[in-house]
Design brief:
- The chain is of the alpha+beta class and about 120 residues long.
- It has a single domain (about 5-95), classed as 2-Layer Sandwich (Alpha-Beta Plaits).
- It has 3 helices and 4 strands, in the order βαββααβ.
- It has a 4-stranded antiparallel beta sheet.
- Strand 2 (about 40-45) and strand 3 (about 50-60) form a beta hairpin.
- Helix 1 packs antiparallel against helix 3 (about 70-80).
- The chain is globular, with a radius of gyration of 16 Å.
- Residues about 105-124 have low confidence and may be disordered.
């Protein structure tokens, strides 16, 4: 089953956002070249607070995520990014993808391995 990680990053007021974006671009290039199991790497900048950024990553499986966390590419990325970051949180540290659409995300089947399908709709 596909899994998603959502991080957010708050740059310091004196942080070099351009350097952070360059580090992200290098990581995305690595994903494209060497990690085909990354379905989506989406980087967002808050309109209300340009110091607040988000990164959403969808992986084919948890094993890819575990391997990537130990990779030199992630170490290089964090070494470049973190000097400019005030704090970072895992908005959704590890989520199963139960629904997806769009050209950048592969179709996803509901996880029924534990007898659970997708969550019920929020309204009737």
């Amino acid at each position: 089953m596909s899994v998603t990680v959502v991080n957010d990053y708050f740059f310091t007021p004196s942080g070099d956002i351009a350097e952070g974006k360059a580090a992200a671009a290098e990581l995305v290039a690595y994903f494209r070249k060497d990690v085909p199991e990354v379905q989506l790497s989406l980087w967002l900048e808050s309109r209300d607070n340009p110091l607040h950024h988000y990164h959403i990553t969808v992986f084919d499986n948890p094993e890819t995520l575990a391997s990537l966390r130990r990779s030199d590419a992630i170490k290089k990325f964090t070494d470049r990014l973190y000097p400019h970051i005030d704090h970072s949180t895992f908005v959704a540290p590890l989520c199963n993808v139960w629904q997806a659409a769009g050209a950048g995300v592969n179709p996803v089947q509901p996880d029924t391995s534990e007898g659970q399908g997708p969550p019920a709709p929020l309204h009737d």
